[in-house]
Amino acid sequence: MAKLRDHASDLDLENQGVWVPWRAGIQLRIARAGRKAHNECVQRLGRAHRGLIRMDTPEARAKVTEVTHRAAAESLLLDWKNVEDDDGNPLPYTAEVGYRYLSDEAFRDLYEFVTVTANDATVYLQDLREDALGN
Questions:
Q1: Cβ neighbours of residue 125 under 8 Å, at least 6 residues apart?
Q2: Which one of 15, 27, 90, 106 is at 20 to 30 Å from 8 when CA atoms are compared?
């Protein structure tokens, strides 16, 4: 037997994001996919292209990809730490900078990590947070 409470999502974590390690000391703050803010972001970004997106053409598929990458940059990946630009200067996170990397095929591992993490319900479980805090 198990208590359902042990499997409840921490809604604050889902919305504010969870800091997770990626590579080389980089930390990413990732919010949960499918929450209201994420769904609204996808709808807002796709609204202007609704007719095109309904088609099954290479242009439509490219637009869907653009929308999903932009939505990931705006509402899934919320921040990062320990990221530098090519000159070694700190690179602050913005949705536009995030989109530039998440949409770059050379950084497809980053995009995949963000989306897989955002879709992993266990990352946002209340009991895991309580365990980490020592409660």
A1: 7, 8, 9, 10
A2: 27
Q: Residues of the chain with pLDDT > 90: what percent?
A: 68
User: 19 with 27: CB under 8 angstroms?
Assistant: yes
Tally of domains in the chain? 1
The domain in which residue 115 lies consists of 19-122
Half-sphere exposure of residue 13: CA atoms within 13 angstroms, side-chain side: 19
The pTM score is 0.86
52 is a domain residue: yes
Write out the two tokens for 119.
């879709």
10 Å CB burial of residue 126 (0-12, 13-18, 19+) is: middle
**Any domain includes 53:** yes
Q: If you compute the radius of gyration of the chain from its CA atoms, what whole number of angstroms results?
A: 17
87-128 pLDDT tens trace: 999 999 999 999 999 999 999 999 999 999 999 999 998 765
Does 44 reside within a domain?
yes
Tell me whether residue 9 is in a domain.
no
